[in-house]
Specification:
about 325 residues; mainly alpha; MetI-like fold; about 0% strand
């Protein structure tokens, strides 16, 4: 097991290195003069020169890369061109809302989708199976912003159960924080409920045909024990895969969701930084999101080994 973990950790290091190189050269991929593009069409030559100096574009490429890599290794991501605040400070201020939203979304999706897919597979002709497939079709068909507005109108504007916009920090209470994120998490979770439910249903249907399940029934084991211990555990590998990929993919969905609900998270910061062409912030966010992808995939691989010992060999 330790050897498997070590191999997976070592394989993640080159991926992060490649991502870091890509993030650095992202600025050089801009057509024309990057400083002129960032400054805008009506900027004066002095303003363009200030941006060029701030981004160190007046230095050789290799020298810039070495200096950037050394700053990155020390935790220095530079400063925002728009506000002058260190990028690490900006990310630190915005990471809590995004992390809470993503965690709440995954918890809602897993809590609803896994039982739904399990019941739909166990009773394929029942109303639960038909309802789950209907939810799956709606989840894949409706964009996040449509679902968000459909939830805002009845529950926020009509019944006034939840706030329309904003975020309550965790320091002001867990319940108040979760209450402010309920509608965004529900809007964001519909797609993942559909995806996880369909994958769970397909995996469970495949496991139900195995001989060891029929043997467990023949031995007289309780139905719940057969489903949980034999069926769901052996069907967990594809489900864990989808949950891990879904958690990483939430980083793309939070950009739209946080913009709609005015949540001051990393998604909102990403959208604002792209519109302002604040490239030091954009570079840091791309590197952060890529690191989260790698870490989540690494965690999924380790869970594989815990669920199925054959994988570690």
């Amino acid at each position: 097991m330790l050897g498997y973990v070590a191999v997976r950790l070592l394989s993640a290091i080159p991926v992060l290195g490649i991502v870091a190189v890509f993030v650095f050269f992202l600025l050089t991929m801009i057509p024309g003069d990057p400083a002129q593009v960032i400054a805008g069409d009506f900027a004066s030559p002095e303003q363009v020169q200030q941006i060029r100096a701030a981004l160190q574009l007046d230095r050789p490429l290799a020298e810039r890369f070495v200096a950037w890599a050394l700053r990155l290794a020390s935790g220095d991501f530079g400063k925002s061109l728009f506000s002058g605040i260190p990028v690490a400070q900006l990310v630190g201020q915005r990471i809590e809302p995004t992390l809470m939203l993503a965690t709440m979304t995954v918890c809602i999706a897993v809590a609803i989708a896994v039982p739904l897919g399990l019941v739909a597979a166990y009773k394929p002709g029942g109303w639960v199976a038909r309802a789950s497939m209907t939810v799956a079709v709606l989840g894949f068909s409706l964009p996040v912003f449509i679902v968000a507005y459909l939830l805002v109108y009845p529950f926020a504007l009509g019944l006034r159960w939840f706030p329309v916009q904003g975020y309550v920090p965790l320091s002001q209470g867990l319940w108040a924080c979760l209450h402010s994120l309920t509608l965004p998490a529900l809007a964001l979770s519909l797609l993942y409920i559909a995806l996880i439910a369909r994958v769970t249903r397909a995996a469970v249907l495949e496991v139900l045909r195995e001989d060891y399940v029929r043997t467990a029934h023949a031995k007289g084991l309780a139905e719940r024990r057969v489903l949980v211990r034999h069926v769901l555990r052996n069907a967990a590998v594809p489900v864990v895969t989808v949950v891990g990929i879904g958690f990483a993919a939430l980083l793309g969905g939070v950009v739209v969701t946080e913009t709609i609900f005015s949540i001051p998270g990393l998604g909102r910061l990403t959208a604002d930084s792209i519109l302002r062409r604040d490239y030091p912030v954009v570079q840091a966010l791309i590197l952060l999101f890529s690191t989260v992808y790698v870490v989540v995939n690494l965690g999924v691989d380790l869970i594989y080994a815990a669920i199925d010992p054959r994988i570690r060999y």
